[in-house]
């Protein structure tokens, strides 16, 4: 029996209704649905990847960004390459990063307290728990760079352990008063040498890494290139002979990482871990940029000494402070209110302002003077006073433009020697400490 079209349609509809057959979807609707599905699927993938990199990376690879002690440097390279696309800078290949990490590791040294020889084996073995910090080899003949904070007292002896497990005594030591870094010598003349990153190569968002002598790698992000801690009132007071800014790294480094060299993806030295701060109730790590000690290295290697200029003033960086109009008029601050270094004295906080016997004192700079320029270099948000002074040498003559009681004037200053100034201040501080100890002892004896 032959069915007409209407009866055929009724039969098909009945099959659809009883779920014997599934009704085909309109092709146009299907095509549109497919396009939307692909589009939203791609968006979900991108968002998911970003969330995973932001929130899950530290969960899977360890607290504070610390990865692990890899079985091979190849494992380290693969992880770093996978992360590199989330930061600025050229993305290295796996082979390039493998070579960079391997070469950088050979220039990193461990610094530990010296052990005295005894007849038992375990007490004289240097363990991970004996480490007090790290350093980096600068020259084949044994110059090493680290943080002075590692060396707590002059009476304590330290040793350096190289990547190949050799132990050396620390010999000559030189402290840079501007950065607080220490140069020292070890008796060796066939050491691997670290390459330096080019000047001005660091930028916010860049990924830096450290590698220990056991091959463990830590990845960190450069969060700020001009970081100044401001957790208490004295933090905003700077000294012209000392670096007022540092690099800020997140997350914070683990304990006993002071002096650790930081490398870029090409294995070039970019900074030295130097300080640990608490900022907004979080631990953060500060580092000294290579641009702050690059010039000093040449003097150390050629002359065996550190050369730094000294002005000798305590100051407030006006560009980092906010004032209302009434305060600007009362204090006779620059109208722009975004430049200048205010020479600051506060007897309660024991802040001198103009240090006695300093270059500033000899040139008759005064408290409340506002230094606007050193030669033609303006003191502003991009150029701190201490940073500008660091570009000169002792005995250089500079024209300092100051604003005094609302009137600009130019004063010639012959810069002093920051190393000699630091030594004199250290001797004075030691003398004061001895006096306080003597007074304390007398009080105990009276009781």
Write the CATH homologous superfamily of the domain at 309-422. PDZ domain
Please give the largest β-sheet. 7 strands, antiparallel
Total of DSSP H or I helical runs spanning 4+ residues: 9
The strand count comes to: 22
Portion of residues in beta strands equals 25-35%
CATH class descriptor of the domain at 309-422? Mainly Beta
Q: Shape, please?
A: globular
Low-confidence stretches: 19-23, 52-89
Task: Explain the overall architecture.
The protein is of the alpha+beta class. It has a domain at 309-422: PDZ domain (Pdz3 Domain, Roll). The protein is built from nine helices and 22 strands. The chain has helices at 5-17, 27-61, 73-84, 94-107, 294-303, 325-331, 359-362, 385-389, 418-446, and strands at residues 108-113, 131-137, 143-147, 158-161, 167-169, 173-175, 181-185, 207-211, 217-227, 237-239, 246-250, 261-263, 269-279, 282-289, 309-310, 314-317, 341-343, 370-374, 377-378, 397-404, 407-414, 416-417. The strands form four sheets. Strands 5-4-1-2-3-7-6 form a seven-stranded antiparallel beta sheet. Strands 10, 16, 17, 18, 19, 20 and 21 form a seven-stranded antiparallel beta sheet that branches. Strands 8-9-11-14-13-12 form a six-stranded antiparallel beta sheet. It is globular and about 95 Å long. Mean pLDDT is 78; it is low at 19-23 and 52-89.
């Amino acid at each position: 029996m032959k069915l007409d079209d209407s009866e055929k349609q009724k039969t098909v509809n009945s099959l659809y209704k009883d779920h014997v057959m599934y009704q085909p979807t309109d092709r146009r609707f299907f095509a549109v649905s497919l396009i939307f599905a692909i589009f939203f699927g791609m968006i979900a993938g991108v968002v998911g990847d970003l969330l995973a990199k932001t929130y899950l990376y530290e969960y899977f690879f360890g607290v504070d960004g610390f990865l692990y002690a890899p079985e091979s440097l190849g494992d380290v390279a693969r992880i770093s390459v996978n992360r590199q696309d989330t930061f600025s800078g050229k993305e290295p290949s796996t082979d390039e990063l493998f070579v960079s990490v391997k070469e950088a590791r050979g220039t990193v040294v461990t610094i530990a307290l010296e052990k005295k020889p005894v007849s038992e084996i375990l007490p004289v073995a240097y363990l991970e728990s004996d480490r007090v910090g790290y350093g980096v080899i600068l020259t084949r003949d044994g110059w090493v760079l680290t943080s002075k904070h590692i060396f707590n007292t002059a009476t304590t002896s330290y040793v350096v352990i190289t990547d190949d497990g050799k132990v050396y005594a620390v010999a000559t030591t030189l402290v840079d008063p501007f950065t607080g870094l220490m140069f020292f010598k070890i008796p060796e003349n066939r050491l691997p040498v670290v390459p330096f990153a080019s000047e001005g190569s660091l930028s916010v968002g860049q990924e830096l890494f450290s590698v220990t002598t056991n091959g463990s790698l830590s990845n960190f992000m450069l969060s700020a290139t001009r970081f100044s801690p401001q957790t208490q009132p004295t933090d905003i007071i700077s000294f012209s002979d000392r670096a007022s800014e540092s690099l800020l790294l997140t997350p914070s480094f683990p304990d006993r990482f002071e002096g650790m060299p930081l490398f870029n993806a090409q294995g070039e030295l970019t900074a030295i871990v130097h300080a640990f701060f608490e900022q907004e109730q979080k631990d953060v790590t500060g580092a000294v940029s290579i641009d702050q000690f690059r010039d000093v290295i040449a003097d150390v290697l050629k002359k065996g000494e550190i050369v730094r200029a000294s002005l000798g003033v305590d100051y407030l960086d006006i560009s980092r402070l906010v004032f209302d109009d009434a305060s600007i008029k009362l204090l006779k601050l620059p109208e722009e209110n975004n430049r200048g270094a205010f020479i600051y004295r506060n007897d309660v906080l024991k802040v001198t302002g103009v240090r006695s016997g300093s270059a500033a004192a000899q040139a008759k700079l005064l408290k409340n003077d506002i230094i606007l320029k050193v030669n033609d270099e303006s003191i502003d948000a991009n150029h701190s006073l201490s940073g500008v002074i660091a570009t000169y040498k002792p005995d250089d003559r500079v024209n300092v433009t100051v604003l005094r009681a609302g009137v600009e004037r130019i004063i010639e200053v012959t810069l002093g020697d920051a190393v000699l100034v630091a030594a004199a201040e250290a001797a004075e501080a030691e003398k004061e400490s001895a006096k306080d100890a003597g007074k304390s002892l007398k009080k105990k004896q009276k009781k």
